[in-house]
Here is the input.
Amino acid sequence: MAIMTTSLTRSLIVAAALSVASHAQAADPIGQIKTATGAVTIERSGQAKPAAIGDRVYETDTIVTADGTVGITFADNSMMALGPQSRLSLDQFAFNPTTHDGRFNASLAKGTLTVKSGQIVKQTPEAMRIKTPAALLGVRGTEFAVRADDAAPATTP
Amino acid sequence: MTRRALLPLLAATALSACCSVPRNDLIVVLPGADGHVGAISVEAAGTKMVLDKAFAGAKPGAGGMAPVEVSESEVNQVFGEALAARPVPPKSYTLYFLTGGTDLSPDSQATMDAMLADMAARKAAEVLITGHTDTVGAGADNDRLSLARAKAVAATLSETFAAKGVKSDAITTAGRGERALLVETPDQTAEPKNRRVEITVR
Here is the structure.
């Protein structure tokens, strides 16, 4: 009986934590644009809008550059920058500022990306993952660069 | 395997190489400004490798993945524009307060001035105020105490930040409790250096 109660309590706590987490993800910005040159667009909820320095970015946003470049600093101090003709989706971002537990998943469909990982990876190696049409990266730290080619058909592992 | 059996296999390999469009993917580890080199694991085309040296790279493609040594000039050529677009890295400043109040210790006034100058030099500056405690008391209580300390500092500095053009929605607070000790101590140890507030400008 004691075991059942504990298990039920734990389920309730997990459910409550999940509901808080999903609410926070829907509402809170996860990062901010710090550099931008040329044409940069944020695709959000099916709509594309031009992006500028100071704009906040949110989970599930897709950042697109044409002739321009963009640099973003995220809530866990991780940083990403895109070269021209690039397309990056911020698939999943969760970060607990007290414990530094979190997860950061992004996809580079095409173009060039430089990354410096932050507190999420420092706390949990490989909690940041970058997907390209050809490869899946697990980030243990700290700085790296990725080019994704969209000329060939996708062969996601 | 006999020579006879090998020939058709080679022919098949050549055929598949000839007819798939070559990809131009590249992944490369970069050394940090402080010389630190990290590591990333790369999974592609059924193979997995770990890159853990400066300028160690991988070229994934439909037929597999090859490790490559990338030169610094190639990195600059391929990633030059993305490298130039990198934000200024976040920088942290640690402030100490006179006991029992919100007045800065004399040493911290200079730190405060440097922090404000850094803030003014950045575009779209954000401020993260993080409180820390020593190991006296329970962990959960220290979480609350460190957050309260961060919020008190945020309140104290709100006018200063506003005067520098930093809007209130660009200021966030966090409490790390006793998770990030500046000076390592056993549990239940009073240590003034651990009772601090860190201000990160980014």
Remarks:
- The CA atoms of residues 30 and 58 of chain A lie 5 Å apart.
- Chain A touches chain B through 52 residues (CB under 8 Å).
- The longest helix of chain A spans residues 2-27.
